[in-house]
Amino acid sequence: MYIIGIAGGSGSGKTSVVKKIINSFPNESVRVLSQDAYYKDNGILTQEQREQINFDHPESIEFSLLIQHLQKLKEGKSIEMPTYSYITCTRQKETIPVEPGKVVIVEGILIFADPELRDMIDLKVFVDTEADERIMRIIKRDVNQRGRGLDKSIQHYQKFVKPMHQIFIEPSKRYADIIIPEGGHNAKGIDILISKIRWMLREG
Q1: What is the bridge-based pairing of β-strands 30-34 and 178-181?
Q2: Are 112 and 7 in contact (CB under 8 A)?
Q3: Global pTM?
Q4: DSSP of 45-109, one letter per residue?
Q5: Which partner for 96 in 49, 81, 139, 161 could form a disulfide, CB atoms 3.0-4.6 Å apart?
Q6: What is the pLDDT of residues 121-161, one digit of tens each?
Q7: What DSSP character marks residue 114?
Q8: Which residues contact 201 (CB under 8 A, 6 or more apart)?
Q9: Rounded Cα distance, 98 and 32, in Å
Q10: Are 89 and 52 in contact (CB under 8 A)?
């Protein structure tokens, strides 16, 4: 099994890159694990405490479970990937079945920040997008999908997203084998990844 890691700052366009890749292959031949599915369950916290969760810190993620699931897939075993709600900050009852395959993509802002997970990844890709563009995407996403008002989204960015990007995410770029500027808009970079995956599926 060949593992591709796609990292980058919040709002950098990682999801767009992943979608364009998987849409290029039929029948779910490329599996995808999202770091966001492995956020720790914070159901016991009050609403006020949930609003202070730092989703951009490595401690917010259950990396041990993500690593365990990757190991199972490598062993040819299926897994049940968790689902997570940003609105309630809880892990949901529903899970997503994932079957083993030749190529697995792991996507998330902090996947290169965990040494054990990083060592499991065969090809490390960093999606690099200017901060101004990322800020606009983050605010739009927070307001439309995560139940935050404009003011709270801006405060959250200033308190958590920006400093954590500088401490954990931007430095992890040095581990990347490939850097793709501007995410989903970089057709040539995405074509290179698609070609690599196509070769792995054919030869693997």
Answers
A1: unpaired
A2: yes
A3: 0.89
A4: S-HHHHTT--TTSGGGB-HHHHHHHHHHHHTT--EEEEEEETTTTEEEEEEEEE---SEEEEE-T
A5: 81
A6: 999 999 998 888 888 888 888 888 777 778 888 888 889 88
A7: S
A8: 25, 29, 30, 102, 103
A9: 8
A10: no
